[in-house]
């Protein structure tokens, strides 16, 4: 058994993992070989990472990189060349030429050192179905749009999801999480929506722990409503069994979808608040949610008008909502996560970035579903910036249609400021931490915070020569530039390779799970389907 599986996990959780794997082995589960994490060394020419990283008292220093702290306090700042000192799981110091005794050194010359990305909304259980819905939209809205079928609701939630076994949940959650870890996404809010039974929930949670990155387990409904579903009441058991400690990488968020009906979401929100959990929900116009949010804004939401908005709410999408709903979200301190590429592709509505700007609000970023679009965070940042600038640029061009450019108003009347690379980097890091209640632990390279750090290669052919650090990250880089990934002080990716992970073996397990899901759902596998 590898060290990854049990390190940093409370003993009860370690035992739970063994119990889970024993149970799945008895049923011939795909993930039951107990050898999913056979150590695989980094590239031979990269040397070895410092030993025992993340352990109490272990020190190392990241030397000579271009450090972008993303801390809003200018006293922390950015440095063209500086060092980051890590001890155990914490950042001790950031600055040029740190004097450090008895510490291993990670050479970051020619690299960019920054906090890891934070994804505030990702359905990881769908990893086995990647790209199946490349041309699809969210729901069958009766429009008859060509090349817009099959739809997400009909195929992913109603056809595939009902046939998932706990082991299918586990391998998709694990593989999808490792893929994002490889991409530099060190924290995720996983909205699993596959809680057909307590065993399904436990499989999702165990995978989050086993992935070894920071995560929020989003306990949402069973997407298909199959027999055995114990949502939302099983939240009490889950919280007690898995999340009794605040000092672990994975914590819990309560999902409470308002489109499930007043009785269900009222119960879910009340349970979440009773347990002291953040409460998340998808809020978007295609599901008819606009009038429900208006009721919540009026204080008349839920059974007996006893559900209100608050700073413990995280709303996802927020497309097509009224001014009244938005003002209430602003006034009550609700956080908003935007999935720019998915919303534009799957007919959720226009990503509401201009509305948020008009209210003085900022979003976090979310990848949503890999059945349609990549979970890569360089794509998320570029999509956010490109979409907003396209709309604002067109507004300015239309204002000047019959006026010579040198006579346009300055600035153009009524137009919001263009997003820049710093903005979307903030959305992808510190905003994500704030929206998940983790900004005291992560989101910036601040002394005292836990060391969630990525080291990006700025000497690579797609980036060199380096002229602007935030510009290089947002406008030029992709996942191939993610050289080293550190979570809570522990090196998880080194010189371009994930450590302690047997990816070929895991991929075989994922492929076997995919084959089962397709066969059980009665969907023919066709690698060249038009979807």
Protein topology:
Layout: H1 3-6, H2 11-26, E1 59-68, E2 78-87, E3 90-95, E4 104-107, E5 111-115, E6 117-122, H3 152-160, H4 166-182, E7 185-191, H5 198-211, E8 214-219, H6 235-242, E9 250-255, H7 262-274, E10 278-284, H8 290-298, E11 313-319, H9 323-332, E12 335-338, H10 340-345, H11 353-358, E13 364-365, H12 377-399, H13 421-428, H14 430-435, E14 453-457, H15 469-475, E15 482-487, E16 490-494, E17 497-498, H16 503-521
Parallel strand pairs: 1-4, 1-5, 6-7, 7-8, 8-9, 9-10, 10-11, 11-12, 12-13
Antiparallel strand pairs: 1-2, 2-3, 5-14, 14-15, 15-16, 16-17
Helix pairs in contact: 2-5, 4-5, 4-16, 8-9, 12-13, 13-15
Known CATH architecture of one domain:
Roll
Q: Total helix count?
A: 16
Radius of gyration in whole Å, from Cα? Answer: 23 Å
Coarse shape:
globular
Unreliable runs, pLDDT <50, ≥5 residues?
Answer: 1-12, 24-45
Q: Major sheet, described briefly?
A: 9 strands, mixed
The CATH superfamily title of one domain: Urease, subunit C, domain 1
> pLDDT average, as an integer?
90
What fold name goes in the CATH topology slot of one domain? Answer: Urease, subunit C, domain 1
CATH class placement of one domain: Mainly Beta
Indicate the structural class.
Answer: alpha/beta
Distance separating the two termini: 40 Å
In percent, how helical is the residue content? 25-40%
Overall number of strands: 17
**How big a fraction of the residues is strand?**
15-25%
């Amino acid at each position: 058994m590898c060290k990854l599986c049990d390190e940093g996990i409370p003993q009860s959780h370690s035992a739970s993992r063994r119990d889970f794997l024993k149970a799945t082995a008895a049923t011939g589960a795909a993930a039951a070989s107990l050898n999913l994490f056979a150590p695989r060394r980094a590239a031979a020419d990269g040397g070895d990472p410092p030993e025992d990283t993340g352990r109490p008292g272990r020190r190392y220093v990241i030397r000579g990189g271009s450090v972008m702290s993303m801390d809003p306090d200018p006293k922390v700042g950015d440095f063209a060349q500086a060092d980051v000192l890590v001890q155990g799981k914490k950042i001790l110091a950031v600055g040029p030429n740190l004097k450090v005794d008895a510490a291993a050194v990670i050479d970051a010359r020619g690299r960019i050192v920054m906090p890891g990305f934070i994804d505030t909304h990702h359905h990881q259980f769908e990893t086995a179905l990647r790209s199946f819905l490349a041309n699809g939209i969210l729901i069958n809205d009766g429009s008859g749009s060509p090349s817009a079928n099959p739809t997400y609701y009909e195929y992913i939630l109603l056809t595939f999801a009902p046939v998932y076994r706990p082991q299918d949940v586990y391998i998709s959650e694990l593989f999808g999480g490792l893929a994002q870890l490889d991409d530099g996404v060190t924290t995720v809010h996983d909205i699993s929506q596959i809680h057909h039974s307590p065993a399904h929930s436990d499989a999702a949670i165990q995978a989050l722990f086993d992935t070894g990155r920071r995560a929020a387990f989003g306990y949402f409904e069973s997407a298909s409503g199959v027999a055995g579903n114990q949502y939302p009441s099983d939240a009490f058991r889950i919280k007690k069994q898995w999340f009794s400690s605040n000092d672990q990488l994975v914590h819990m968020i309560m999902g409470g979808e308002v489109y499930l009906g007043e009785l269900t979401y009222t119960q879910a929100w009340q349970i979440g608040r009773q347990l002291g959990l953040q409460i998340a929900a998808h809020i978007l116009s295609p599901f008819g949610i606009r009038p429900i949010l208006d009721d919540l804004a009026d204080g008349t939401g839920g059974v007996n008008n006893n559900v209100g908005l608050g700073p413990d709410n995280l709303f996802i999408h927020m497309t097509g909502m009224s001014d009244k709903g938005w003002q209430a979200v602003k006034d009550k301190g609700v956080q908003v996560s935007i999935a720019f590429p998915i919303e534009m592709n799957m007919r959720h509505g226009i990503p509401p970035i201009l509305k948020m700007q008009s209210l003085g609000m900022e979003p976090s970023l979310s990848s949503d579903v890999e059945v349609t679009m990549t979970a890569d965070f360089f794509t998320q940042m570029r999509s956010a910036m490109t979409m907003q600038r396209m709309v604002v640029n067109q507004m300015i061009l239309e204002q000047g249609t019959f006026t010579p450019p040198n006579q346009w108003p300055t600035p153009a009347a009524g137009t919001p400021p263009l997003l820049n690379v710093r903005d979307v980097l903030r959305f992808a890091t510190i905003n994500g931490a704030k929206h998940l209640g983790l900004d005291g632990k992560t989101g910036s390279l601040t002394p005292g915070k836990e060391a969630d750090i990525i080291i990006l290669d700025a000497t690579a052919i797609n980036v060199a020569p380096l002229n602007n650090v935030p510009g290089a990250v947002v406008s030029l880089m992709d996942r191939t530039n993610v050289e080293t990934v550190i979570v809570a002080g522990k090196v998880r990716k080194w010189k371009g390779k994930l450590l302690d992970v047997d990816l070929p073996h895991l991929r075989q397990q994922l492929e076997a799970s995919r084959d089962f899901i397709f066969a059980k759902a009665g969907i023919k596998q066709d690698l060249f389907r038009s979807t």
